[in-house]
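Recall that a protein's primary structure is simply its ordered list of amino acids. Everything else, from secondary elements to tertiary packing, is in principle encoded there. The following example makes that idea concrete.
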Amino acid sequence: MSGWANYLVFMIATGGFYALLALSLNLIWGGAGMVNLGLAGFFALGAYASALLTVSVGAPIIVGIIGALLAGAVGGYIVTMSTTRLRGDYLAIVTLGFAETIRLVANNEIWLTRGSDGISGIPGPLKADLGTWFNAACAAGTVAIVALVWFILRRLDLSPYGRALRAMREDEQVAQVAGKRILRFKIEAFAISASIAGLAGALYGHFNSYVAPDIFQPLITVYIFLAVAAGGVGRVSGAVLGAYLVIFFLESTRFAATAIPGLSPVQHAAMREMLIGLALILVLRWRPQGILPERIPPAPLGARASRPHSLGVMDATTRA
């Protein structure tokens, strides 16, 4: 494959990893209304779980991916249980602290994670058989997994479970009055979201054959928030679209920044971040609800007819 073809494959694969992270964030933020600033931590948790299982233990790749899903779900459960009484800014601070804790553990526990040197030699599926086509096959497989996760979350979004999550997002107290078990929904939503982020980490590790603490910087979480906001909060299709738009901006500004003469490499990097921010500000200025705004389908006619009008509650559930 040519250099440009490899570069395009890299962009498609990286966009797929970002799309999974965006779908993860969209479920917990756009669906349940919980702010998770620790997305990079769950991304790292999945990457290291799969890497340790396949490299240190010698387990098959599928076992490593399952381990990443479980590690993410367990991490999400722990975070949710430790923040049951927190909302808004406080929840965001705790999740941010969790992500930094994961990164510091990966950086300092050399006996387990090899520290700042990272874990190399992570096996890829059929890498020896595919040869030079390995990257293209992995990119196609990542896109297929993104499509599968999109389909599952889309079905979830249209189900009564998804309507209950949106009701909780709009007003927890009203949802609780309507009989929804808020804590259970929080735990389940966070665990599912974290497992998707863990899956993204595992795929990233097997694609690049290497993971290190410096890869999982908080800036990743910022990019994913921008992707979801630009694509449309609460819309699974918007999350995927926003993720690929962010990758497009990231890579296109790489060339645009270097085209400006008289700047040092550090200034080129700063200019790149400015151009990314400007592009996303323009998108949000003209499309404040995102490129694909959330569409809340009406409840079934039977449910609307049987709802007690005197209560005036669960408006979000009915609209959902």
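The chain has one domain: 3-319. The longest strand covers residues 119-120.
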